[in-house]
Design a protein that fits this description.
The complex is a heterodimer of chains A (about 325) and B (about 775). Chain A is built from twelve helices and twelve strands. With about 325 residues, chain A is of the alpha+beta class. Chain A has a domain of about 100 residues: Enolase-like, domain 1, CATH 3.30.390. In chain A, a hairpin with a 3-residue loop joins β6 and β7. In chain A, α10 runs antiparallel to α11 and α11 crosses α12. In chain B, the strands form six sheets. A seven-stranded mixed beta sheet of chain B has the order 3-5-1-12-9-10-11. Chain B is globular and about 85 Å long. With about 775 residues, chain B is an alpha+beta fold. In chain B, β10, α7 and β11 form a beta-alpha-beta unit. In chain B, about 60% of the residues are buried. At the A-B interface, α12 of A face α5 of B. Bound molecules: flavin-adenine dinucleotide (FAD) and iron/sulfur cluster. Iron/sulfur cluster binds next to loops of chain A. Flavin-adenine dinucleotide binds next to β2, α6, α7 and β8 of chain A.
Chain lengths: ~325, ~775
């Protein structure tokens, strides 16, 4: 870890300005991801702006009947919130399926969205990695890529975004509110927050340097039953091999609307819009779920070690849809 | 990690344990499930671990590891690091003190493996990825680590050998296996036996690289006082550490003191000194101040040993009734190119089942990796994982219950040594386990039991583990207040050694627990074999038992002859120490009072045991602990995620010294069995020669959620051939066969036989049919 200077932010505007004016400054919140990366010198900030004590830790109802979640709300608090549990149960399920109790007590909402990939080559400075060092190559492409992406990846990088929370938020059409120096604010749909790697895997989001996430807003929950299903190598404390967030609204024997987001398969939380469209109006049946699962994984490519994710994701989509319908 | 699921009453599994261990007629403290005597220290943070020791003027070291796995350091530029704030010293091969060369690459004999010099920063050669190439010592850990990042290195890289599976043709036979056992064994003729056998199994299994991962990483605080070196570290075996450090530094062992009162887990990777210890000693000498070094979790993977990847071929030939005509177990294991380590993976096969024709073989395939080390039941852990699955395959083939198959192949005496067993209660373990587990309810046809969308399966496996006794001495003293202190250089690596030794001394001397204090973990105390190979309790325990006998002898002699003794002249031969009193015939006296009167300075005595392998009893009897594991799993029919439902172990391991700590040992072993069967694997990248998943987020060990309900039952047993206590090795028995029981349950659930461990869901999924929704 390299030496750095540290400042405790007094306000959101001041924090944004403090980072914006220093090219090598970073926000630090819970630090559960950033500190690990700093210890290994994957990230080498010269200045840290601590935003963890800013009063962005409230969960409030919005005028439209949704929720506004402050950037500093801890993962464990968000999961325990009565509104979240009753109206956005798949978000609570996703949060509780992530990391460990200790980490969730520290991890912030914004930090969770912006956590970096767990690709083991990214974590080892002696290995080629385009995300860490543009142009050095991708060690995972021909290497140990069991955890890697089957959708949305490129020849430059096949890393996945590891968050569970973000997958549920993607299914809930969350919006990200940011603040930049001079109180400039904007709202970004969650689907536009993360970029696909293409030829520049080090550019992970559309946020500008110094642009700080202030809150995440959730529109009122869509009708239908919500389920978050995480498939992993051990019962707890493991990143998703594949995860599926599904909301299915049924009327009679037919599906009125459906939403499907997937984790563990792509460089960002992956909305399966084509699959959603195919389900709309279809009879709730094994055939329809199977068809949707095929559509959700259309165009998926394995890289050897992760080939199994394609059938696994299909099977997980199928049975999660079925479970949502069954409980609906 | 070894706890039962929350919500389950803590004694719902323990009660079973206790009901079987009936108090002996001379019931005392041995065997009782008393709480750990060091428990309060541990839960209040007052048990001091290696990195927590402090001294004035400590400097902190940070090790920089090689970025390549094979080649030379062409250039190493430390100028910037040396100038960095707070840095006292940067040590590389250019300025490190001279050390002996690393010796020959053969599997050393048992003493040599522990005593040989293992120099660090000794040459410009890089032998494995992340091998230490520099040490930075600074005012703080952070300053040392930051400065290490400023060192620039240029390597001349050489092609290395990293891919075990494509290099099997390089295999050769080592001179011996670990523990000095013979490499091969051959009885009868397997070829003719197999040719004639109507039923044949020929199955090849693969077990991966694995890492010990104790919670406490290797750490050392080294300090010199003149020519005397004191090392606070985390060690399982102090005498080994001492000898290894002394020969690496080229000094007499008497000048080295090793202190290791508490150890945060070892699992076999703390039997020898590693680079943290050697470099701390060298740097402390160079700087003339104490130096502290710990491995980071990532550094543990390359620098603190591992279990090597193996391929095992098991061939069984049987008649239609399941009686074995031939057994063959062939093992190919990866090893280091510069120091062999040949795990005795097929050695247990020599004792487990009867068959007239039998062969075992061990072969090594050299790779450019660090040496393997003794890991959680070396030999049996990977060996039984394969072999006990093959037995399951045979049971299905001949249409026999797996327990019945094993009973039919139960030998009357050790099938290769031809000597009787000291005790062998394998059949009793299996039968008791079957009864308790509800084994008869298992459907032998796999893939048929569906509950909701979970496939349910049950499996079992046998457990066997040799009983080792290491030479050990203990010293015990009683003071004028009747307080007893026992001292030995034994260690408690979390197993409960402090507690059982306290019980042994207290019972033998007829005193309450509170009157006995056990001090461990200091090489100034009498030498033992330390903790490893499950020999600790029986070896150190027997030595202490004998020391207490010797102490009683001294007390009795003085009591009979001393002027001041209330027992003076008591000549009856019938004597006893109980309830704090000494009895001679009809006369008795309070022990404390007696000592005060006759020996104001107290008494001291020593007792020993000899290494098991040298004793007549060891030569005359085949000595092992036995057990049977049962497992029930559920497999998600959509995702093929495998989760444990329950496990049961029935164990026969001689006299149980403490029913509670013994149970904890077995539970821990069972958890490791789950790990080996379902999740543990370190991936060696064949392009770069490094372990890819080198932290605890990516290297999966079982967590609480993976454990489910566990029950441990001990059958009452007393092995009077083993040692004066009648106890046998226990700790590792919990691992032996546990993984195979899980694997066999997965097969029973799914009908998919995965022979490549760990059984992760991707290996089951392709064969799992879709079930209609
Ligand atoms: C062992 C382990 C297992 C884990 N398992 C899981 C898992 O199963 N599922 C899962 O989803 N997650 C998992 N995690 C990840 C965990 O959820 C994240 O580390 C955590 O959510 C990050 O939050 P933080 O507040 O600590 O972020 P930090 O580490 O403080 O920050 C992360 C990044 O976000 C930036 N940042 C933080 N706040 C803001 C803001 N307001 N505006 C702009 N930028 C900001 C920081 O600059 C930094 O780049 C695991 C982590 C560990 C260590
Ligand atoms: S997948 Fe991405 S993060 Fe991983 S090595 Fe390749 S470029 Fe780096």
């Amino acid at each position: 870890m390299q030496s750095f200077t540290y400042q405790r932010a007094e306000s959101a505007e001041q924090a944004a300005a403090a980072v914006a004016t220093r090219p090598n400054a970073r926000f630090i919140s819970g630090g559960t991801n950033l500190l690990d990366l700093m210890k290994l010198e994957i990230e080498r900030p010269a200045h840290l702006v601590d935003i963890s004590r800013l009063p962005l830790d409230r969960i409030e109802e919005t005028d439209e009947g949704g929720l506004r979640i402050g950037a500093q709300v801890r993962n464990s608090d968000l999961a325990a919130d009565p509104q979240v549990r009753s109206r956005y149960p798949m978000l609570a399920q996703a949060l509780l399926a992530g990391a460990s109790g200790q980490i969730r007590n520290k991890a912030s909402t914004a930090g969770n969205l912006l956590q970096r990939t767990r690709c083991p080559y990214f974590y080892d400075r002696n290995m080629p990695c385009n995300k860490r060092e543009q142009g050095s190559g991708c060690a995972a492409l021909q290497g140990f890529n069991r955890m890697h992406a089957v959708l949305g990846a490129s020849q430059a990088c096949i890393a996945v975004h590891p968050s569970d929370m973000a997958v549920a938020m993607s299914g809930l059409d969350a919006r990200i509110e940011t603040i930049s120096p001079e109180r400039k604010t904007r709202t970004i749909p969650i689907g536009d927050l993360h970029r696909l790697p293409d030829t520049m895997p080090d550019m992970e989001t559309v946020l500008d340097h110094g642009e700080m996430i202030a809150a995440v807003t959730l529109p009122p929950p869509p009708p239908g039953r919500q389920i978050y299903r995480k498939v992993r190598d051990r019962a707890s404390y493991a990143f998703a091999l594949v995860s599926v967030a599904a909301i299915v609204e049924k009327s009679g024997g037919r599906i009125r609307s459906a939403r499907i987001a997937m984790g563990g398969v792509a460089p960002k939380p992956w909305r399966a819009t084509a699959a959603e469209q195919r389900l709309t109006g279809a009879t709730a049946s094994d055939a329809a779920f199977t068809d949707a699962a095929e559509a959700a994984l259309a165009g998926a490519v394995g890289h050897g070690g992760n080939d199994f994710k394609i059938p696994l994701a299909k099977r997980t989509v199928r049975h999660t849809l079925a479970a949502a319908v069954e409980r609906a | 990690m070894n706890e039962t699921k929350p919500g389950l009453p803590a004694d719902s599994t323990g009660s079973a344990t206790h009901s079987r261990v009936k108090p002996r007629p001379d019931a005392g403290l041995i065997g009782r499930p008393i709480d750990r005597v060091d428990g309060p220290l541990k839960v209040t943070g007052r048990a001091t671990y290696a990195y927590e020791h402090t001294l004035d003027g400590i400097a902190y070291g940070y090790i920089l590891g090689a970025a390549i796995a094979k080649g030379r350091i062409a250039e190493i530029d430390t100028a910037e690091a040396e100038k960095a704030p707070g840095v006292f010293l940067v040590m590389t091969h250019r300025n490190a003190p001279a050390q002996p060369d690393f010796g020959a690459a053969v599997t050393p004999t048992v003493p040599e493996v522990f005593t040989r010099a293992r120099p660090a920063l000794n040459s410009d050669r890089v032998r494995y990825y992340d091998e230490p190439i520099a040490l930075v010592v600074a005012q703080t850990f952070e300053a040392a680590r930051a400065a290490a990042g400023l060192i620039r290195v240029r390597y001349d890289e050489e092609p290395g050998r990293y891919d075990f599976r494509t290099r099997i043709a390089d295999a050769y036979a080592p001179k011996r296996t670990n523990a000095g056992l013979q490499t091969d064994s051959l009885i009868g003729s397997l070829e003719s036996a197999s040719a004639a056998a109507p039923v044949k199994i020929d199955a090849t299994y693969r077990t991966p690289f694995e890492h010990h991962n104790p919670m406490e990483p290797h750490a050392t605080l080294a300090s010199w006082s003149g020519n005397e070196l004191t090392i606070h570290t985390s060690a399982q075996t102090l005498a080994n550490f001492r000898a290894g450090v002394a020969s690496t530094l080229g000094i007499a062992p008497e000048r080295v003191r090793i202190v290791s009162p508490f150890v945060g887990g070892g699992f076999g990777c703390k039997l020898i000194a590693h680079a943290d210890t050697i470099l701390a000693a060298l740097a402390a000498q160079a700087l003339q101040r104490p130096v502290k070094i710990a491995f980071t979790r990532q550094q543990m993977f390359a620098n603190a040993g591992h279990r090597a990847e193996m391929i095992q071929q098991v061939r069984l030939g049987a008649d239609n009734d399941g009686r074995l005509a031939g057994i063959s177990h062939d093992v190919w294991s990866a090893t280091s190119s510069f120091e062999e380590y040949c795990e005795q993976t097929a050695a247990f096969t020599r004792s487990l089942y009867a068959a007239p024709n039998r062969t075992t073989r061990h072969r090594l395939v050299p790779l450019d990796v660090n040496r393997g080390e003794w890991m959680r039941s070396p030999g049996e852990a990977p060996g039984m994982l394969a072999f006990e699955c093959a037995m399951d395959e045979l049971a299905e083939r001949v249409g026999l219950d797996p327990i019945e198959l094993r009973i039919r192949n139960e030998p009357a005496q050790d099938p290769e040594r031809g000597v009787p067993f000291s005790t062998r209660n394998l059949v009793a373990c299996m039968e008791e386990g079957a009864r308790r587990f509800g084994w008869q309810r298992r459907d032998p046809t796999p893939g048929r039991t569906l509950e909701g969308r979970k496939l349910i399966g049950r499996g079992m496996a046998a457990a066997i583990r040799p009983n080792y006794i290491g030479a050990a001495t203990a010293r015990v003293a009683i003071d004028r207040n009747g307080q007893v202190t026992a001292r030995l250089d034994m260690t408690d690596i979390g197993t409960g050694t402090y507690t059982i030794l306290t019980q042994i001394a207290a019972e033998n001397l007829g005193l309450p627990i509170a009157s006995v204090k056990v001090e461990l973990g200091d090489s100034r105390f009498p030498r033992t074999a330390g903790s490893g190979g499950s020999w600790g309790a029986a070896s150190a325990g027997s030595a202490l038992y004998n020391a207490c006998d010797a102490l009683k002898q001294r007390i009795l002699e003085a009591a009979r002859s001393s002027e001041a003794s209330p027992l003076r002249g008591a000549m009856a031969t019938e004597t006893g120490f109980a309830d704090g009193e000494v009895r001679v015939g009809q006369r008795s006296a309070s022990l404390a009072d007696l000592i005060r009167r006759i020996a104001p300075d107290g008494f001291e005595a020593e007792g020993s045991v000899a290494a098991g392998a040298t004793t007549a009893s060891y030569k005359a009897y085949s000595q092992h602990s036995y057990g049977a594991h049962f497992a029930e799993v559920e497999v998600d029919c959509d995702t093929s995620e495998i989760r444990m439902r329950r496990m049961l172990a029935v164990m026969a391991a001689g006299r149980i010294l403490n029913a509670k700590t013994a149970r904890s040992q077995i539970l821990g072993g069972m958890a490791w069995g789950i790990g080996a069967a379902l999740m543990e694997e370190t991936v060696l990248d064949p392009r770069y020669g490094h372990f890819v998943n080198h932290d605890l987020a990516e290297y999966h060990v079982p967590v609480n959620g993976d454990i489910a309900e566990m029950e441990v039952v001990f059958l009452e047993e007393q092995d009077d051939k083993a040692n004066p206590l009648g106890a046998k090795g226990l700790g590792e028995l919990g691992v032996c066969g546990a993984g195979a029981a899980v694997a066999n349950a997965v097969y029973n659930a799914t009908g998919v036989r995965v022979r490549e461990f760990p059984i992760t869901l991707d290996k089951v999924l392709p064969a799992l049919p879709l079930i209609a929704i």
